[in-house]
Design brief:
4 helices; 38% helix; four-stranded mixed β-sheet; globular; Glutaredoxin; alpha+beta
């Protein structure tokens, strides 16, 4: 897959299994991403909650300004074939 046109950011916790699964999914697709550990980076949890529309669980995944949601949301998008399109800069329905 070609690199994403928009930066991919994933908010995580070090001990989170869903975070590990999301990172594995993205890495397996060759997607570079910035990981922000909400327990290690000051203010990151509040920033994540604000960007994610109040969602407090991790992971929370963004492609540019587009909020994809958590692992379940991203894996569902992948099953529908929309993740590659979104990562390539195309809009998905």
């Amino acid at each position: 897959m070609s690199p994403s046109r928009s930066p991919v950011i994933i908010y995580t916790r070090s001990w989170c299994g869903y975070c590990a699964a999301a990172k594995s999914l993205l890495s397996g697709k060759g997607v570079a991403f910035e990981e922000i550990d909400i327990e290690a980076v000051s203010g990151a949890r509040a920033q994540m909650i604000k960007r994610a529309g109040g969602r407090t669980s991790v992971p929370q995944i963004f492609v540019g300004d587009t909020h994809l949601g958590g692992f379940d949301d991203v894996s569902a998008l992948e099953r529908r074939g929309g993740l590659d399109k979104l990562l390539a800069g195309e809009r998905t329905p």
